[in-house]
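Researcher: Here's the sequence for the chain we discussed earlier.
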Amino acid sequence: MSYRIQFAQLNNGVSAEQAKSTLTTKLKLSDAKVSQFLAGKQIFGPITHEKAVKQQKTFAALGIQVNIISTSQSSTQDHTTDVDKRILAALDYITTSIIRLEEKMDDLARLQQLQNGETDIELEIESQNSWGDDLEFDEPLEATSKSKNINWLFIALIVILLSLLGVVIAFPDLLPF
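Model: Thanks. This is the structure I predict for it:
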């Protein structure tokens, strides 16, 4: 079982400024970490009970009383729940980004067709009521390099977003949400 150290109160005769300066000099903590610790947040990682008692004695010698808190299964479940929520938020963001990119790609493809004087193939098929029209397969298909460039751009963006998702899943503490 693991334990954590949490700030309880200052001993008589020790001011908050003295405690802050002692913690920054003796424990080499940043001012932000010291402020978080004195606010009652758990800034230290889980440790064994023996180490927690030693740290409690060390803080008592500095004039700071701390509580030893047992970290149970619920705190690890809370942590995994938070990680799951952050992953789902990242997935939601990536999904909406992909949808927006697809819409932009469709708009760009339509603009390109309009600029080249081409008509939308789907509109042509809908406007033709009969299937008996002669189809000319002898005509060579003209493929433009711009549409291929747009497709490669779209594929590259998807690969970047998927790799970002992989990094978020592999290292959930890397990107704060």
